[in-house]
Amino acid sequence: MSKKILPKLLIYCFIFYSSLAIGRTICLNEKSPYIDKLSNQSDFVNIAAENSVVTDRNQIYINGDVELSANDFYLGADNVFAESSSKKYRASGNIRFLNEFISAEAEKLEINDKFIDAKNLNFQFINSSAKGSAERLKGSSEKQIITNSTFSNCTNENKDWTIHSDSLVLDKKNNLGVATNAKLVFFGVPILYFPSLEWPLEGRGSGFLSPAFSQYKEKDSNTSESSISIPYYFNIAKDKDFLVTLNNLSSRGVNFATKYRQLLSSEKFYESGYIELENNFLGDDHITKNDRWLTKSKINLDLSHHLKLNVENYRVSDKDYFNEISKDSFESNLLSFLELNYLKDNLQIDFEYNKNQVIDSSESSFVYSPMFSAKRSFSDNNRNMDLSFNAVKFSDKYNSLNGSKRIHYEANINESFEKNSFEITPELAFLSTYYDIKNSKSFKRNIIKFSADSKIDLERELDINGTKITQSFSPRLKYNFVQKKKQSHINNFDTEEFALNAPSLFNSQNFTGLDKISNANSFTYGFDSEFFNYKNDEYIFGTSIAQKRNFDKQSLGIDGNFITSKRFSDIYTTTTFNYGDAGFNLLLNYDPYKNRLSSSALIYDYYISPKKLINVGYINDLERTLNLSASYPISKKLSVFGSLNKNLAINSINKGLFGIAYETCCWELTVAKFNDKDNIRNDSLELELVFKDLGSSSNSLKKRIKSQIPNYLKTDDF
Fold first, then answer.
1. Which of the ends of the chain has fewer CB neighbours closer than 10 A, N or C?
2. What is the pLDDT of residues 131-189, one digit of tens each?
3. Which residues contact 274 (CB under 8 A, 6 or more apart)?
């Protein structure tokens, strides 16, 4: 082994062992055997003993199987010396003691209503699972100093880990535990030494978090590399924290990462807000010989009740960063932006300025630099009118149309007419768009739209096996007319086709954005039906079915040219069914001309507990994709989990995960193997070992698992 590698390895081993942290306690507080000894009388101390001697009117000596009990403490011993005026007791021999915060057995004990001093004792804290033994314990309910102690949060029957320390201070007021000259013993084997160990007694606190271990391979290499990630969490205040992570990549070097978060309270220039600053830096990459970095910052401010500001900056050092350094999913474009939004009554004004870092030039896209929009709404009973304006300058340095401008005006008016359960809403709209295209002539496009939307809302009560169910049924018919205009001369700056389903089929448009306005002369018809148990607030069943009848033989394509359209569209259905812990979602698109399904999707969820669940998804569209994820507890402590994303058309696995988790009430081990064909850094084996209640936990591995297994550990606070 290289002389340069060995010192680093020793350092990382020490940091790893000194950072085995953490998590929330699930060990049940064990009941003190003396809890039944407490008296139900609040003003008296009951005394039972074989002998008692009154030395003066304020002092009494009691011996022989002594038991003193009140409603807030119990003391049993061979000998007790009591001072009634100060409520002070000194005991010796076979001592059993219980008060509001501690239960103990000791050789010697001195107590009053605020203080305890015990020697050679076994103890258990009342409001937590903490317990142990010590040479001496002294202090109050707010702070205890424990000398030469053995301490654990595990149960008495299974003390899997213990902390042995010269001095242990538990400061409830400052929510801090401090152990001096401590060693952590795991299954009887000392595994690390702490000169000083600190942890929060409750909630989050500063300290090392769970380390993360992984193995990976560089592109075009068969050599296994390793990654060791050690995070340290600073709990600065209730509204701010700071996370520092040292991540050593054996093939590239040390990546230093920081993340700062802060909630902002009311100040002179804003009412509330949020700041998040994230930075990663890997100096002098061993392979590329260059510095590699990522920076991502967010600022969200409520400047007033009506005005909001959002700013985000997202940048990386080079286009290969996500594939070679980061475990994040590959992103072809990194968007930085500034947004200013104003909303008051019926007036909405938005300003947005974007800047794009293009990682993959083949997938570059236009961004707003800047965009300004305004919308004013007017309402009078059932009549509504909207006036809107949108002006954009587009930016894309890889495109010759960089700097092109678009100004869009729109006015629409609608009125609803209702009678009993029937409602019809006619709407008229005028759209005018002006384009100033780079290196081309400017032009304008004017389009008129009209629609009439009608529906009937029906509802009835059903009694199914003694359960009252409400069924709603809403047939719907909508006519859409949009003026037909060829638009092949207009570039798609922010326009894409969107996937149709039963609800969206009633929309006259087939595209997002404003660059393509679909022509329409059609009726869309369908219905929605739902079954709901209002008593239990339970959604049982729902389905939507819709089809479109086109009167125009041509429709607008994404390129702006006309294509032949079918007289009848596919029949789109969406169905949701919930039964107990299971849920089904089914999407079917049926082609009436070919008499077969054109696409389908099935999603099945079965959830019992955070570690007992299954999710199955099948999508048959342009390609057949299977998504499968599950977690199952083999025993009370051991569980297995996994996920699979597979392209069935080419029999290729896109992503995969398999792992095991072993959890007791005071420690947990998780091992997971990830596979990701699109990001070689995500093709890794990772491990996380957690000793609960010795600090705070980042649960970084669990976050990755949860991203691939919906609802996994959903009750955990990440």
1. N
2. 889 999 998 878 889 999 998 888 777 788 888 999 988 888 887 888 899 888 888 88
3. 261, 262, 263, 264, 298, 299, 300
